[in-house]
């Protein structure tokens, strides 16, 4: 129900949207990734480990960022049409549980 609500009620995901799904390798993240892909969006997922990154890719995330890694000495950053913050627990739990849009 959470994934359906996030992809249809919080923001109606449509074809052409770029959606950033945090914890995309977890249970809700996988469902949200699959739903957004089904609705025609490009999904960028975040994951804490290589195993979770593989799960997110298998669920349909076009790109997966490891939020526990740095690239070239800089943290990985992504912007999207629709971002779900604070899904799950762990390193991302300090972020507000809200929905935001890049403009």
Layout: helices, strands, pairs:
Layout: H1 2-10, E1 18-21, H2 27-38, E2 42-47, H3 50-59, E3 63-66, E4 70-71, E5 74-75, E6 82-84, E7 99-100
Parallel strand pairs: 1-2, 1-6, 2-3
Antiparallel strand pairs: 4-5, 6-7
Helix pairs in contact: 1-2
Q: How much helical structure, as a percent, in the residues?
A: 25-40%
Largest sheet: 5 strands, mixed
Order of helices and strands: HEHEHEEEEE
Low-confidence stretches: 85-103
**How many β-strand runs?**
7
> What is the CA–CA distance across the termini?
27 Å
Instruction: Please state how the strands of the largest beta sheet are arranged side by side.
Output: 3-2-1-6-7
Molecular structure report:
The protein is α/β, with parallel strands linked by helices. 30% of the residues lie in helices and 22% in strands. The protein contains three helices and seven strands; from the N terminus they run αβαβαβββββ. The chain has helices at residues 2-10, 27-38, 50-59, and strands at 18-21, 42-47, 63-66, 70-71, 74-75, 82-84, 99-100. Helix 1 (2-10) packs across helix 2. The chain is globular and about 30 Å long.
Can you tag this structure with a few keywords?
103 residues, alpha/beta, two-stranded antiparallel ribbon, 3 helices, globular
